[in-house]
Specification:
heterodimer, A: about 325 residues, mainly alpha, two-stranded antiparallel sheet, 2 strands, about 75% helix, B: about 325 residues, alpha/beta, 11 helices, 9 strands, disordered N terminus
Amino acid sequence: MRRSLRQLLLIGRMTALEGLQQPICLLLTLTCVLATILQPFLQLHSFGEEGRMARDGGLAFMLVFGLFVAGFTSGSTLAEELRSGTAATTLAKPVGRLTFIIGKWLGVVVGLAVFCTISTCATLLAERTAEHTIETAHFAGSIIDRFAGLGTIAAIVIALALGALLNFRRSTRFSLATTLTLLAGLPLVILLCGLIDRTGSLLPAYSLQVNLRLLPAAALIFMLLILYAAVATALSTRLPTAVTLLLCALLLFIGFLSDSWLGQSTSVIGRLAYSLIPDVQHFWLADAIARQGRIPLRYLAHAAVYTLSMSSLVLGIGYAAFRTRDVG
Amino acid sequence: MSDETFVNMNSNSDNVLSISGLTKIYRDFWQRPKVRAVSQLDMSLQRGEVLGLLGPNGSGKSTAIKMILGLLQPTAGRISILGTTPDDPAVRARIGYLPELSHLYRYLTPHETLELYGGLFSLPRQIWLARSAELLEMVGLTEAAHRPVGEFSKGMARRVGLAQALINNPDIVILDEPTSGLDPLGRHDVKEIVRTLAAAGKSVLLSSHLLGEVEDVCDRVVILYRGQLQAEGRLDQLLARREQVRLTLPEISTAELDTVCAAIAAKTGTPPTVDHPVMTLEEYFLEIVARAGAAESQKRPPAPTMAAFLKNHATAEDTTA
């Protein structure tokens, strides 16, 4: 048991390390952050809902790009390893196949945790950047918070430069160094934003001026991505990356519509399908935090239990498919 | 082979691996038989023996090895390895495996690769660190220990593969085309490693289609063709030409040679063939490289040998136990 746990953590750690070093994961993360932070600068006809649009957009980018991160990481660290034979080298060691699959899933989840943290920070900063109408002693009117927006872009540029410098000087792996710098840099920008107001003037007292009610909504999306990671891992035991990605995207699409398609169904098949297909609407609670709304902790706990149960079921099915699969 | 024979094979205490009636049929999507990769294979591997698994490409060598490791499910037949079946993960803790191609994690360094595989064997950190450093030095990769494997040449990746196969100080070492991609020096090192492993009582199953290589290190060979066993036996028995005798003499004059030849011709009725023994190209190459590198190697401390590695770890494990 202790040996299996150690193997699980090792495989998970190496999968996460391998995943975070894939250039495609860095590209997806950077695109997600850039798309999130640039949208407040490009908004038109927003009818005073700039902050909400930035927040909803950021969460949507997190969901879609996160799905691709989950699919690509599972594909490259499992399907590709099974195809190339790297998995055979690992499975020739005293490693059970269940341990191997769960370890791979854990590694993908760690990669997703890094991605979601970066994306959540970018969304918090995007919401702060979005145009707001304010009235202070020195200013009255609508204003974009350029410090937060440009600070985020500067953090991206610094992360890329530092990644390149570390790669040049110390042969540190570029994708990993850049991602980790971004992971440290964006929270730092959030903290620095607490020193100044939207006009760029220093605040008399430190005040963390970001919408922390967004965090539970981001956590729910992270949970949904954990579930998709389990699906992608299970599919990757038998299918190539492209097919896994396609099926995950299809599951997301059906998941958005399942409530209206199957929610009212009275047939056994309809009820069963509704129970098995993850209903994305239950995880998409961006609307709940509009107008000072909050997501209760109890709801988050229920969602976490559902995520873990469904992930276990999906990984169990994946294991059944993988248990007797020829690996070579 | 009958069940009775199989039991007898298992009961031989020197057998670390016994295979009986092993068959593998690959099937298509509709489960129709597509290829019979291995057919009714019977063979065994004894403790301290180096067994060569020979055959042309596509003869079923790698398929047989993967079934021995539990990576492929046999269609029929039985495998007993170290007294149990390959499905038991615990038995794989005593096996070292070098796959046909060095399938390694591209973004990991050799150091991280050995950390991963050492961890999978649950080696204590101190033992893993010591073995890792010695193995990397032994395969000549100490200076490249912190570079990603993806940047390596095929030969360098092969050396990392060899190091990972030995990280657990295994009882059975399975090497699938171990010298593929290696230069003559690397091939020579691998052969030395195989010899030393056998001398230390390890059993080695070596698959190759390079006959010279197998001839140099194997005690016994199994020859496969289209998945079927064609020949099996000790090399000295299989290769000896009983109908001919070779006489090797020190350097002698032409007159003396003519006298010897005339005497042999008079006795046998056939004049003997006379030539000079020749080195193989590999022997010649190694001699040249050894001569050229002699001065340089005097300046550097020698890399640990396989024998030293095995000795060190036998002592370390005794202490741990």
